[in-house]
Amino acid sequence: MENCTILVNSCDKYEDAWEPFFKILKINWPECEQYRIILNTETKIYNCDFLNIETVCGGKERTWSERLKFALSHIETDFILYMLEDFFLLEKVSHDTFLEALDVIKKGDVGYIGLKYQEKREYRNPDDEDNTQRFINKDKVVSVNRINSMTALWKKSWLETLIRDHETPWEFELYGSERSRRTPEKVLIINNSDGACPCVFNYNVDIQYGHGLTCGGWLPKNIELFEKYGIKVNFENLGIKYKIYYDAIGIPYEDENNKNKATTKSLLREYLYKIKHRIKVHKKNIEKQKRKEMSLK
Predict the structure, then answer these.
(1) Does residue 60 sit within a domain?
(2) CATH of residue 131
(3) I need a surface site. Which of 40, 151, 201, 204 has the fewest CB within 10 A?
């Protein structure tokens, strides 16, 4: 079992994604059966006949961070593979590289190893002239979001120390990264330059070419991906996000031929909206500052 648990973090809203996510995971990473798999959600239970999946229901009354802590309390292994249900694998997982990363994080001074392949970015240690390091110090190549919610190996005990009950996932990434710098644990990422390290988990969530979910809806390419694997999904529940547009006053809409009526409102209505919006933003900034102070205590 390698002292590792797979934790898939989700919510009830995305229940339609569970079946395709786990089917594609099993096809592209059959070795995942070796590990305990936990689906963390709110109230709904998921079962399937091709993987042994345990559902942990944290309830709707808990925050995102509280539900994550609750799920971690059900895990006995020292390490977890953290995943999200809205990314679908595009190719086979390099299980040998995954085991190699697991050996690295077991050494004690590493708290996190990011395993999501970044197609548009190249990560290489500038101090490694021969480019032989498979996993490199993330601080040498990335200046923001030292940790994030993408697919990664975590030392469970370290992750638990970084969680704050009130935080959203975006606040956790931002402020949790700051808190992580106060600790001695190293944060690593795969070296994806010049084939130095085989791709472990390959995803693409580009709205035009990618597969998964964005802004609460399906990406268009999922249709052909699911046909490839014989997966049937009701796309109407979440809708398909072909493109996101914005009108003259910043209101988003999806169909370019059916623009939001707000674009035809009078200048006075637009002016009043902007005033109301600025007041709302000001209040949000005050609340955001309070939450930031709570996070960085």
Answers:
(1) yes
(2) 3.90.550.10
(3) 204
Identify any residues that bridge with 69 across adjacent strands, giving them in sequence order.
none
Is residue 101 assigned to a domain?
A: yes
Spatial distance between the Cα atoms of 140 and 150, rounded to a whole number of angstroms: 19
Residue among 183, 141, 144 nearest 161 (CA): 183
| Domain presence at residue 208 | no
- For β-strands 110-114 and 186-190, DSSP reports them as parallel
3-class DSSP assignment, residue 290? helix
Question: Which position has the token pair 């268009």?
Answer: 220
Q: How many CB atoms lie within 10 A of CB 249?
A: 15
pTM of the model: 0.81
User: Which tens digit of pLDDT belongs to each residue from 28-37?
Assistant: 999 999 999 9
Express each pLDDT in 166-214 by its tens digit: 999 989 998 999 999 999 999 998 887 666 777 888 888 776 677 888 8
Count of residues making up the chain = 297
For residue 42, what are the CA distances in angstroms to 14, 15, 36, 179, 260?
A: 11, 10, 19, 27, 33
Helix (H) or strand (E) holding 213: strand 213-214
